[in-house]
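request received
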Amino acid sequence: MMHAAVRVRFAPSPTGRIHVGNLRTAVFNHLFARHNKGKLLLRIEDTDRERSTPEAEERLFEALRWMEIDWDEEGDDRFYRQSQHRDRHMEIVEEWLKKGIAYRSDRPTGLLGGGPGGKSSGRSSGGSGAGSAGASDAGGRAAGEAIWLKTEPEDLRYDDLILGKQSQPARQMQDFVLVRSNGVPVFIFANAVDDADMRVTHVLRGADHATNTFRQLLIYRALGVEAPRFGHMPLIVDKQGKKLSKREGDPESLIYLDEFRECGYLPEALFNFMALLGWSPEPHAGDDGEMIFREKLSRDELIAEFDLGRVGKAPAQFDTVKLGAMNYDYIVDRLNHDEGSLIAHLKQDVRDEGLDPDQFDDAQYGVLIREAAQRARTLKELIEKSRFFFLDRVEVNVGYKMVRKAFANDAVWSRLDATIAKLEGIAQSEWKRGRLETAIKKLAEELAGGKMGDIAQPVRILTTGGPASPPIDVTLELLGRQRTLDRLRDDDNRGRLKMNDTQGN
Ligand code: GLU
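response:
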């Protein structure tokens, strides 16, 4: 699908934190614009003066920069600021008031059913206008009056680029508010006028806005301009199929961009993952005719392949396991293509954790990321899993059953002493994975009937503090000779293991 002059926009409201749903909207618009060699415009929808803040706005720019979502600038301004077009919005309603297609009324605006027949007139007006209806502002407008668009019952239809044919029956038609009694244009009105003024051709936004579209179609009609095409992206849901929202107190529940950043998700991984929230590339037929479903795509591939026709209607599941796996793949990619920046990033995180990042060189960081981090999902998890490498000493956790089990047999101590003696014989310059592995294998043959675990597990526990770590040869290589030997001889840990052994049984 090629459009000669695609113009889309990302129109965030600068209130609060940035939810992944907003980000997905930005990603889809970016991909659609770049795929069609069109324009992506940015509009800051800051008409809600109470909720919009400069900080939230700054966060938005920072997020777009970080995700490398660039937009096109037009005219003298880098972006379109909705609040600066308030006069334009008011000019339009004034014109509609004159034409008689809009009118003022002080009936409550929050209630549905306030249609042409005044169906809601029997209901209480709440507190909103009742006490102030008599007061007038400088313009002579009654303070409690909102401006409404007049409608006639009719069936409304449009063809959604994603949802397909949409319709709203005539009986649901009702007049609606354009400008609130406080003089602020409502979202659907300002949003549609701005889209018309910015000559937006496609409105791609979340499915939660689908019901706004019918009223916006009436606004375009009143404006006398052709409405853009609409495409409503599927809702993002969690594993249980519920709308993705914050589960308080659950560290796994991430929904805001800053949280993903802080945990060490890479922007390229998030971008790829977001692109798959509702969309998937066309599968390719492999050599043997089998379909290949790809998930990891570069930015260029995403742009080349993005197609609204492949955006589904079904809710998109936010699969954190998939995101984690993808992030790890991108961490390794970064290591291959831009080692310096990744290691610098990791070092900063290590420093932030109060650990000394300079005890490893770049080659060692490479080993740490590739082999010692055991498919860590994030940079934060990578540090968590490798913490023991950075500490001066570790404290063995004797609470673990697997730890106690490894030391249950008295023979372990003599085997450990033999292991220490053997490792002492390996010179600093030979302290490498291959050499270490051979030594441990040999010990296993000599002392444990070939069972590597009988040698490696006690070593692992004393050197890392726990029963799980990367392969023992990688672990010891990274720890280095001196640290390994010091930890194997640590009297405090040995004492506690011995005590626990006798007490526990
Ligand atoms: N400011 C609205 C939002 O963030 C824009 C909706 C739209 O794209 O039309 O949800």
